[in-house]
């Protein structure tokens, strides 16, 4: 090897070491769902804006995520919540961020500005037990404050539209309670037959989510009349 080539090789090595140490987390695509795809909610008192995050190089396909979310959103209408906007952001990150774990996922929150409530679709979870989904409100975020108001879905989560609505209710209500009522969305096991929320569940969801800045009260003039 000539001295010049050796020098070039050293430079190349140095450059790749730097890239490895500080591989950036980037948003490579933002999809804003067209308003006409979002469910029309009559007599809604509150607006919700949702932020979905997928990772390039994982098994989740953005189209599958969007389809499941669009199926889930009408379930919120029974609480007077209108979905005012949904954005899906596709991230390019080092692969360690493709798996949920409290320290690594907390670090991701510090690498990018995350709009909330935020729902992340990861390849898998290192949590034990390994839930299909993990919902982190405020009250269960004291040991992991960066992760407040986020939800993490592992690939292959069952009944995804129902599970999505269920976890979202946990986060908006900042409450991990389950219901034993028949047909209730918050039964411990999600099922396509369990879709209802009680008035008490809805009023708690609206009050807590508004107080936590996750729902915006709609101006009276915007609300359709009965
Ligand atoms: Zn639950």
Describe the structure concisely.
By secondary structure, the chain is an alpha/beta fold. It is 30% helix and 22% strand. It has a single domain, classed as Collagenase (Catalytic Domain), CATH 3.40.390.10.
Could you characterize the architecture of this molecule?
- By secondary structure, the chain is of the alpha/beta class.
- The chain has a single domain (about 25-220), classed as Collagenase (Catalytic Domain), CATH 3.40.390.10.
- Helix content is about 30%, strand content about 20%.
- The chain has five helices and nine strands, in the order αββαββαββββααβ.
- The protein has helices at about 5-20, 60-70, 100-110, 160-175, 200-210, and strands at about 25-30, 45-55, 80-90, 100, 120, 125, 135, 150-155, 215.
- The strands form two sheets. Strands 1, 2, 3, 5, 7, 8 and 9 form a seven-stranded mixed sheet that branches. The protein has a two-stranded parallel sheet with strand order 4-6.
- Helix 2 (about 60-70) crosses helix 4 (about 160-175) and helix 4 (about 160-175) crosses helix 5.
- Residues about 1-20 have low confidence and may be disordered.
- The structure holds zinc ion (ZN).
- Zinc ion binds near residues 166 and 178.
């Amino acid at each position: 090897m000539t001295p010049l080539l050796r020098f070039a090789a050293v430079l190349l090595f140095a450059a790749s070491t730097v890239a490895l140490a500080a591989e950036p987390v980037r948003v490579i695509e933002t999809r804003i769902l067209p308003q006409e795809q979002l469910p029309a909610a009559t007599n809604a008192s509150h607006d919700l804006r949702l932020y979905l995050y997928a990772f390039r190089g994982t098994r989740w396909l953005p189209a599958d995520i969007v389809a499941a979310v669009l199926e889930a959103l009408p379930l919120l209408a029974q609480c007077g919540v209108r979905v005012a906007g949904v954005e899906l952001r596709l991230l390019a990150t080092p692969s360690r961020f493709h798996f949920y774990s409290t320290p690594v996922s907390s670090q991701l929150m510090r690498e990018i500005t995350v709009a909330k409530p935020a729902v992340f679709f990861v390849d898998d979870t290192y949590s034990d037990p390994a839930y299909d989904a993990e919902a982190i409100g405020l009250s269960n975020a004291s040991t992991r404050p960066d992760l407040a108001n986020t939800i993490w879905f592992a690939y292959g989560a069952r009944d995804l539209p129902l599970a999505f609505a269920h976890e979202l209710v946990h986060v908006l209500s900042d409450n991990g309670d389950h219901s034993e009522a028949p047909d209730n969305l918050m039964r411990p096991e999600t099922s396509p037959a369990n879709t209802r929320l009680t008035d008490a569940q809805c009023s708690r969801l609206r009050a807590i989510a508004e107080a936590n800045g996750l729902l915006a009260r709609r101006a009276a003039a915007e609300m359709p009349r009965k």
